[in-house]
Amino acid sequence: MSALTKVNRKKVKSVCQAKKRQKIKMFDNWAKWYADFYKGEQLEDIQRKEDRQSMHRFRMFLEAISNHRKYRIVDVGCGTGYLLVRLLQLGHDAYGFDYSDNMIRQAKDFLKKSDLNAERAVCADLSFLDRFRSNSLDFVTAAGLVRYLNREEERKFYRKVRRVLKPSGRFVVTFTNELFDVWSFNRYTVDFFKRNVLTFKPIEQYVDPEKAVSRFRQLITHPEEPVVRAHSLRDKNLVILHNPLTIEKHLLSYGFEVKDKRFSLWEPMPPLLKDGDEKSYDLAHAALEMYDDHDWRGNFMAYEIFTNCKPRRQ
Ligand SMILES: C[S@@+](CC[C@H](N)C(=O)[O-])C[C@H]1O[C@@H](n2cnc3c(N)ncnc32)[C@H](O)[C@@H]1O
Predict the structure, then answer these.
(1) Mutation choice for ligand 1 from 21, 22, 27, 264, CB with most ligand atoms inside 8 A
(2) Looking at the predicted structure, is the pLDDT value of residue 42 above 70?
(3) pLDDT tens digits, residue range 72-113?
(4) Residue 271 and which of 61, 128, 182, 281 are 20 to 30 A apart at CA?
(5) Three-class SS string for 242-281?
(6) Domains of the chain in sequence order
(7) CA separation (Å) from 181 to 55, 176, 188, 192, 219?
(8) How far apart are CA 155 and CA 153, in angstroms?
């Protein structure tokens, strides 16, 4: 390896580590908010909450994990432990881990309050998966995690999951929907145009990108809304997106076959239209969430893609 490559590698590694620290700090700050959002100490309480918009996504996870048998499950990026608690309450042999200390502290609290073993929540990064034997897990779940990995971490994550899952096991995982950006009519729509249209081979050579972006921005009347938030990882380019139309191909390239694909976190209209019409927006929001999570409109109206995958036979 040349000396220059070595220096570059070192630089890339230290940038990655700095970004990782930045993300962990952010999650540490969010932990209290998450815990309050999910609050519920009794099974009945939590079940009621699953009818609430944005909690419906957990119902999808629980439906994917039938209760016919007791399974060995690991929830990756478990946050404050909502799914973990539910899985343990249902009698599964489950563990959850998360690299944010504060998230795990909240998760342990939640476990204790639910009369469950706090040791089931562990503060660790993705290398925690290396502790499990090959072909030993029935399910690996990851709700809202992959969006916070970088492409290299994502690749490593899939490799680890492939190793620990039994051939009959399932990988239940969500992604942030890239096509939602077309529906949001804001700066993310401009970015979508830059990323996916201006780099499209047949168009690229005929269009002046600077001029095209400037004119495209004029079509989007509120590109800066919602205002850039200091705590937003999205605005810091620390979030990765996935396309629901190609997600099967993407996962197949890592050895997973998608058996079910659904949508969650729907927005009935571009979110900026909510201003001034909150009530009907919220009602439509709740109705949508409970309607049909396979509906094709989810390809652009839902913020999250849910997939239930099985390892492909080698
Ligand atoms: C959006 S939160 C979701 C939490 C929980 N799964 C839920 O749906 O409520 C994402 C979580 O993933 C964790 N996370 C992100 N990258 C991680 C990594 N590389 N290793 C471990 N945890 C990670 C964060 O700390 C955060 O708590």
Answers:
(1) 27
(2) no
(3) 999 999 999 999 999 999 999 999 999 999 999 999 999 999
(4) 61
(5) ECCCCHHHHHHCCCEEEEEEEEEEECCCCHHHHCCCHHHH
(6) 22-179+236-311 (3.40.50.150), 187-219 (no CATH)
(7) 22, 10, 5, 7, 15
(8) 5
Q: How many CB atoms lie within 10 A of CB 52?
A: 11
Contact 163, 108 (CB under 8 A): no
Q: Does residue 75 contact residue 65 with C-beta atoms inside 8 Å?
A: no
In angstroms, what is the span from residue 50 Cα to ligand 1's centroid?
Answer: 20
Average of per-residue pLDDT across 247-265: 96
7-11-12 Cα angle (round to 5)? 120
Write the residue with the smallest CA distance to atom 23 of ligand 1. Answer: 77
Half-sphere exposure of 91 (CA within 13 A, CB side): 5
Which stretches of 77-136 are assigned E, i.e. beta strand?
93-98, 121-123
Distance 276 CA to ligand 1 centre (A): 33
- Taking only the tens place, the pLDDT of each residue in 183-216 is 999 999 999 999 999 999 999 889 999 999 999 9
Is the pLDDT at 276 greater than 90? The verdict is no
